[in-house]
Design brief:
Membrane topology: Multi-pass membrane protein
Strand content: under 5%
Number of domains: 1
Low-confidence stretches: none
Main location: membrane
Keywords: Cell membrane, Membrane, Transmembrane, Transmembrane helix, Transport
Shape: flat
Number of strands: 0
GO cellular component, one term: plasma membrane
Largest sheet: none
Family: Belongs to the binding-protein-dependent transport system permease family.
CATH class: Mainly Alpha
């Protein structure tokens, strides 16, 4: 026992500060969030401790899930995630596929595609708020004005002000900003495939399509899964881009993260914590199976 402590002691001392910080400020706050979410802490007086709050268990969760407003937020989240995932995966893959072939100025194209990643969601949101302006006709600006100039007036629309599909307009700048990241992942995957595999397939008479379908695409499946997980969990936490383009009170673009902010701003800490817990559970349902599968593959 003493020998084990002597061996592990320096390592534990080295890791202790990080473990304590993670334990307190990550897992400790997660526990505190769940504790708040099962109380009736809905007023400023309760939030400041002037009035007591009692445990109501899962009533906040059932009330939220039964409310039409929160159901709309969840529907918006699903719609945003679907458009965001498809857009980034398709655009990122196409860019990587084009750059995988030897072309002049590859470094320039790669820089152009990756540049949006260097811009914060808040900064890009300010620009895209103007581009996605819903004014039409003589008051048109942004993309609607561009459609007017090129004679494509029928493409003018309300963008994020559309009640049903407004959230999909918010996905456009998100796709623009993160497609380069997905491109970098796929391009690294393409470049990591040995050239011998390609040459062997060509010697066996495989066409270019069959080469990609039967040789290259299967090699990229782990990268595609990783990209899906990363982009998927980022879309579930969408907040800053939406807040930069729209407003918290806008029904058409609200998602659970925005609801959490609105509840917190009105001192409804219980519902705010409940929304945060629901988001954490959704992310865990997506991430945990992926991590378990990754751990199993590493042990093989």
């Amino acid at each position: 026992m003493l020998k084990t402590l002597r061996r592990a002691g320096p390592a534990l001392l080295l890791l202790a500060p990080s473990l304590i910080l993670v334990g307190v400020f990550v897992y400790g706050l997660i526990v505190a969030n769940f504790q708040t979410s099962v109380t009736d802490n809905h007023t400023a007086a309760q939030a400041t401790g002037r009035e007591p709050s009692v445990v109501v268990w899962f009533r906040n969760y059932t009330d939220l899930l039964a409310s039409e407003a929160f159901q709309h937020s969840l529907a918006n989240l699903v719609l945003y995630t679907a458009v965001f995932l498809v857009g980034t995966m398709v655009m990122g893959f196409l860019w990587a596929w084009m750059l995988d072939k030897p072309i002049r100025g590859e470094g320039i194209f790669r820089s152009v595609y990756l540049f949006p990643m260097a811009v914060s969601f808040v900064a890009s949101g300010v620009v895209w708020r103007w581009l996605l302006n819903s004014n039409q006709g003589e008051q048109a600006s942004g993309l609607n004005r561009l459609f007017q100039i090129v004679g494509l007036d029928f493409l003018q629309n309300n963008w994020w002000n559309n009640v049903t599909f407004g959230i999909t307009a918010i996905a456009i700048p998100a796709i623009w900003q993160l497609s380069g990241y997905v491109m970098a992942l796929f391009l690294a995957g393409f470049r990591g495939i040995p050239e011998e595999l390609r040459e062997a397939a060509r010697i066996d008479g495989a066409s270019e399509w069959k080469l990609y379908r039967h040789v290259l695409f299967p090699q990229l499946s782990p990268i595609a899964l990783s990209a899906l997980i990363i982009i998927g969990h980022m879309s579930l936490k969408a907040f800053d881009l939406i807040m930069s383009i729209s407003k918290p009170a806008n029904y058409q673009t609200k998602v659970p993260a925005v609801d959490m902010y609105v509840f917190k701003s009105s001192f409804d800490y219980a519902n705010s914590a409940a929304v945060g817990a629901i988001l954490l559970i959704i992310v865990a349902v997506i991430i945990v199976p992926y991590l378990v599968n990754l751990h199993r593959q590493e042990k093989r």
